[in-house]
Amino acid sequence: MRPRAIPLLAFGLVGCAAHIVPRVTAAPAVPSDIVASVFLIGDAGAPNPAGEPVLQALERALAGRPDTTLVLFLGDNVYPRGLPDSADRSFPEAARRLGAQVEFARQVPVIFLPGNHDWYGPGREELEHIRREGRFITQASSGRARLVPADGCPGPVAIELGPGLRLLLLDTQWWLFPHEQRGESSACETRTEAEVVARLAALLRDSAGRQVIVAGHHPLLSGGPHGGYFSLGDHLFPLHNVHPALLLPLPIIGSAYPLARDFGISAEDLSSGPYRRLRSALDTAFACDPPALYASGHEHGLQLLDRGRPPLLAVSGAGIYGHESYLQRIPETRLALATGGFMRADLLRDGRLRIGVLVASRAGEPREVYAELLPAVGEEHAGCAESVPREVTGPGGTR
Length: 399
Known about the structure:
Helices cover 22% and strands 21% of the residues. The protein is of the alpha/beta class.
């Protein structure tokens, strides 16, 4: 083998990923039938300074949308270490990265969820980091954009988008490490995990016939690295995860890192104790009155995952073109794309919720590759009864 073929092979190994798109897709929505829209985009915190294709695609997709349209950034809004103090030499670049997203508030209202990178801070400065980001977003947008939940509180916070669509927003990073906003001294409305679960369950119960989307940065399931799935290249070239140019083969030794993550060494992986507690808590809150959709980022790709019961799980963490992670098909996978893009949820006049998956071209053009219709409230689920399979309709029929 010629020497330069080695890095080409390595690139193929670290870059290969699932490309799973169902053949049956929902028909396009008639614009006049759309009552409200939420655009779901995560992990957009390192936009290309020369022009970020995914953000350009989002801008084009927003054209002509109804007044009741919202952009929801699903966390990790500033890579890699959140928004530092203005005296820090890295502040200008961090402010540029966040500002590129705040700019959308010129078109539509914008909400940012906190992610683990937004919480970053040396020592015990995480709370000040997240508060600083919240202040920056509000000031830079003149109040048209905001960080929700704010001040390091867990939520949930309810946002009404028209009479038929409710968003319930969580700061899921609050669950993954202890900090001063927990306990009796906390200024948050909910101070303990039990209070968060009870409040979320109550808001779901009182949603009064509305479609509900619950959103947090962390997914409940994933076929990517945070879910314990790694490519062969991750095992052979582990230093590639430190820097893309480090393609030094380390077989056997290289498997130590993926295996350690599978055993929960990182709180940010689904295998960790705190993360398992978060997933269990949300499943408890969803037990009797589940939302239609649970939306998240964290994993750098586009996934729709169906556990056979509501909610449908949407992982939309592909906000940076070329920053995708390996994805693998798992039993719950409906769709998996390791490519830049975002999703949207459209509430239709007949009460159904249409979930669209859009990919971005290098030129910043959006293209919908899949869509799914979720039933109107009351069609599928009542109380704690077992749900029936949802339908996917379109030119190919129903399955």
